[in-house]
Amino acid sequence: MTQRNSILQGVLLLLFVGVLLLVGVQVAEGIARNKIGVDWSVFERKASYGNDDVNYLAKFFQALWFTVRISLLSIVLALLLGIVVGVSRLSSNPVVRGVSSFYVELFRNTPLLIQIFFWYFALVAALPEGVRLALGDALGNAFNVPGLGEAVIASVGALSIYTSSYIAETVRAGIQSVPKGQFEAASSLGLSGTQSLTQIILPQALRVVIPPLGNQFLNLTKNSSLVHAIGLSDLFFWNVQVQSGEGQGVVAIISITLGYLLLSLTITGILNLINGRLTLPSR
């Protein structure tokens, strides 16, 4: 049986490699047939956008670093909001439970791009002028995009709230997966509801929800590609500039694909390490 499984796995691997080679050949033939230029020296050319005198390679790493920073900040805020909303979904208070349910349904069922535009054109503009200017300047300087701080506020706000609505449901399911006996044991020890939640229930629930939380972190990182729509210089913005300014669409698409793949694999690796540390040893 073991030998048969090994042979089957080998055959499937060969088929997979064969399909990849076939796709690669077809893509190469299509590029040649349509006379699509593929010039990797575009990275050495001076970038056609921005005030700094650098080439497209430097701009690529600037865009990659921007994507990392805005994703990390949004992940932290989304996790905090998601835990609060997820716990509120199980509240015995019908008002709290109803508001948190409305929050989840509203933001999960509207497109993220619309939410980004709403934040940018409505919510940020509605902030008190002093707060808006101070926060915008602080974030613009922190993200090295002076003058675009309001776009950063809108992007982080939309990404965080949108993702938190999914995280809330994950946290709620994690809490419900904890045996009821744990609640009763905490109560019998004289712990308050808050103490039971923070010291007994949530630590156990978070062990369960690490894998699905990782999926949400990955989704947020990839969803950050939408912030280019309001002028922020992320990886997708770099791709648009290379395509429109240099006509190197194939180079641009391959480059940002590898960039997002690198970020996704890094996040997956970190979460696997965390999950491994939190996994209880088998008896």
CATH class category? Mainly Alpha
**Total tally of structural domains:** 1
Q: Could you say what the CATH topology is called? A: MetI-like fold
Main sheet makeup: none
The total count of strands amounts to 0
Which word captures the global form?
flat
Mean pLDDT: 87
* Helix content range: over 70%
Order of helices and strands: HHHHHHHHHH
Distance between the termini: 29 Å
Spans where pLDDT lies below 50 across 5 or more residues: none
The number of helices is: 10
Q: Which structural class do you get from the secondary structure elements?
A: mainly alpha
Q: How much of the residues is beta strand, in percent?
A: under 5%
Instruction: Just name the CATH architecture.
Output: Orthogonal Bundle
- At the fourth level of CATH, the homologous superfamily is MetI-like
Q: What's the gyration radius in Å?
A: 24 Å
Q: How would you portray this structure in words?
A:
There is one protein chain. The longest helix is centred in the N-terminal third of the chain and has 33 residues, at 56-88. The chain has ten helices and no strands. The chain has helices at residues 2-33, 56-88, 94-108, 112-126, 129-142, 149-177, 180-188, 193-223, 235-246, 249-278. The protein has 283 residues and is an all-alpha fold. The mean pLDDT is 87. Helices cover 78% and strands 0% of the residues. The chain has one domain: MetI-like fold (Orthogonal Bundle), CATH 1.10.3720.10.
